[in-house]
Design a protein that fits this description.
It is built from four helices and ten strands, in the order ββββααββββαββα. With 200 residues, it is of the alpha+beta class.
């Protein structure tokens, strides 16, 4: 589950040099980059959960459309998108503006279920770019995203990346997921609040 295993905005491991602060607690690590709070929750037996949360100053409809439509995805996340919004549907994306959906750079994210404007559960197909130990456990990875409209047209989004094992390999990998996801989510916030599309 975006450049995210988000597990979507969670799908290609990108390494960016971002400035972020890390606060360590007994069972979790929190990372805050600008307006996004990322937390690695290790309180579950043998698993960790990557939680990423942000608030954006636009109504819920705009945020939902950014996550669930072709126009939305192509405005902030990827160069090319194809969406089939239904239970058992998909989000197919390609970062390559010269590519096409269905070529070998296409990323396929399955829509497991959704409640309109409330939540969506995603599962990305693991690509060849991922480490071998993740390929073996791909069926365990999901991204559950909650949407909540607050007062005055403000929307809160909270994403849970689940299925990761509480091992040194996964904990090391999380920093890359966090950085890549936060960059994508900042692009989303910028697009929603200013209308400025991300260049691909």
């Amino acid at each position: 589950m975006n450049r995210i295993i988000n597990i979507n905005i969670l799908t290609v491991v990108l390494v960016f040099a971002l400035s972020f602060s890390v606060a360590f607690g007994q069972n979790e690590t929190s990372v805050k980059q600008n307006r996004i709070v990322s937390t690695i929750d290790s309180t579950y037996n043998n698993e960790i959960v990557l939680i990423q949360e942000f608030t954006v100053n636009v109504p819920l409809d705009s945020v939902w459309n950014a996550y669930t439509t072709k126009k939305g995805w192509e405005s902030w996340a990827v160069a090319i998108a194809e969406i089939d919004l239904k239970v058992g549907g998909y989000i197919k994306t390609n970062y390559n503006a010269n590519g096409k959906i269905g070529d070998n750079t296409t990323i396929v994210t399955h829509i497991i279920n959704y409640v309109p404007k409330r939540l969506i559960t995603l599962q990305a197909e693991i690509t060849e770019n991922f480490p071998e130990f993740m390929k073996k456990e791909a069926k365990d990875f999901y991204n559950v995203i909650y949407f909540e409209e607050k007062e005055n047209g403000v929307t809160n989004v909270k994403s849970y990346g689940i299925g990761y094992k509480n091992t040194e390999k996964y904990l090391s990998l999380m920093k890359y997921f966090i950085q890549a996801n936060e960059m994508s989510l900042m692009n989303l916030i910028n697009y929603l609040e200013t209308g400025e599309k991300t260049k691909h």
